[in-house]
Amino acid sequence: VIDIRKLYAGTDMFTFDPGFTSTASCESKITFIDGDKGQLYYRGYPIEQLAESSDYLETCYLLLNGELPNAQEKHEFETIILRHNMVHEQLTWFFRGFRRDAHPMAMMVGVVGALAAFYQDSLDISDPDHRRIAEYRMIAKIPTIAAMCYRYSNGLPFNYPKNHLSYTANFMHMMFATPCEPYEPNPVLVRALDRIFILHADHEQNASTSTVRLAGSSGANPFACIAAGIACLWGPAHGGANEAVLKMLDEIGDVAHVEEFMQGVKEKRYRLMGFGHRVYKNMDPRASIMKQTCDEVLAELGLQDSPKFKLAMALEKIALEDPYFVERKLYPNVDFYSGIVLSALGIPVSMFTVIFALARTVGWISHWHEMIADPHQKIGRPRQLYTGEQRRDYVPVNQR
Ligand code: ACO
Fold first, then answer.
1. Whole-prediction pTM value?
2. Membrane-spanning residues where (predicted)?
3. pLDDT tens readout for residues 324-351
């Protein structure tokens, strides 16, 4: 590893690395990915063990603090997060300013950014207490806001959180309960969603996390930084991928059209959504866990024979055998299966990226926390390779 700071200190030289394929922008102790081996660790713990034995809030504690909590720390953390899960009542009015058919992600960007206007007692980032309370608020309120986005875009009344429920069951209650019928948590489905949250909680310097760090490097408040991360996540090459997977499956329509579609992919007329990854050049470890979760959920709901699932399996089979995909190391990523699971849980496609944002909030917060606490932290300021015009003189408009 070359330390760029020493190499180029005091010179005009810089690296040109479009898309940052080989440039580290920071040091971090949070998440480690071995893309060639297909391994992912949060704070040193393999993702497989966390997905099997931990729960999302415990994983949040681990990402934020660096260690797993003991029983008392776990209880205290859960209690603090529960205590912060309501949003300011005026925020419900804020929602009413949006068009009724607005995309939930469009509302998320706006509402999360607006939290800075509602929680002004946690904006002084030089104060560790302010920082900590802002972090708790973000983790606690994001499911409430996400569910509000869904309810608003469907013309449904908002559901307030119920504190006897777990973090994930509470989110499902806020999504699905009706005034006539309470939401009865199904442990298999709650566990599946909790696992989706764990798998999406962090992934080192991906585009949205880098966005949060870059925004935060200027000293911007944490709510504004997370709003920036949400905006970046919305893109189809990043968090929009599982939404794009379901759209792709709808467009293909039937197993009979799979061969023709794959030919189009090879001719570069379309991309196979949910396949490929910038870092994993082997199976995405999250994809294996998600595939198992997908089997469990479909079995629980009696949906193993659903046409969409069969279509997805037909695509996966071809992609894993066809030399075009094998040579390019294009394996299914986590989003290939998470879209199918979310759909089976009754979550509409327009909410998929919102769910990702909900889960990733703790990763963004943990990176923001790590960066702000670093005494050597500098404002992020990439260089550029200028390829525009040479110096030229201004021409008055009537002479152009
Ligand atoms: N379908 C078909 N071909 C692909 C795909 C794909 N999904 N991904 C890459 N390729 C091909 C490219 O056409 C290129 O082929 P070439 O060598 O003949 O030109 C080669 O594989 C390398 O592709 P790049 O675009 O250079 O790979 P990069 O690392 O930049 O892209 C990305 C990674 C953006 C994730 C890409 O694989 C993609 O678009 N995948 C689909 C979207 C998706 O699933 N995103 C989710 C990522 S996971 C996440 O955000 C949680």
1. 0.90
2. 336-359
3. 999 998 989 888 889 889 999 999 999 9
Give pLDDT, residue 8: 66
Q: Residue 386: left if φ>0, alpha if ψ -120 to 50, beta else—which one?
A: beta
Q: How far is the CA of 320 from the centre of ligand 1 (A)?
A: 15
Ligand 1 pocket mutation pick from 47, 333, 352 by most atoms within 8 angstroms of CB? 333
pLDDT of residue 168: 98
Distance 41 CA to ligand 1 centre (A): 23
Q: Is 233 in the pocket of ligand 1 (CB under 6 A)?
A: no
Local confidence band at 10 (pLDDT 50, 70, 90 cut-offs): low
Tokens linked to 320: 């894993």
**137's tokens:** 């608020």
Q: Check if 196 has its Cβ closer than 6 Å to any atom of ligand 1.
A: no
Ligand 1 atom index nearest CA of 245:
44
- Ligand 1 pocket residue status of 328, Cβ below 6 Å: yes
Q: What interface predicted TM-score (ipTM) does this complex get?
A: 0.92
Cα of 262 to ligand 1 centre, how many Å? 14
Residue nearest (by alpha carbon) to ligand 1 atom 21 = 328
Residue 275, beta-bridge partner list: 332
Q: How far apart (Å, rounded) are the C-alpha atoms in residues 39 and 284?
A: 7
* pLDDT band, residue 9 (cuts 50/70/90): low
318 C-alpha to ligand 1 centroid (Å)? 17
Q: What is the pLDDT of residues 85-119, one digit of tens each?
A: 999 999 998 899 999 889 999 999 999 999 999 99
- Does residue 237 line the site of ligand 1, with CB under 6 A? yes
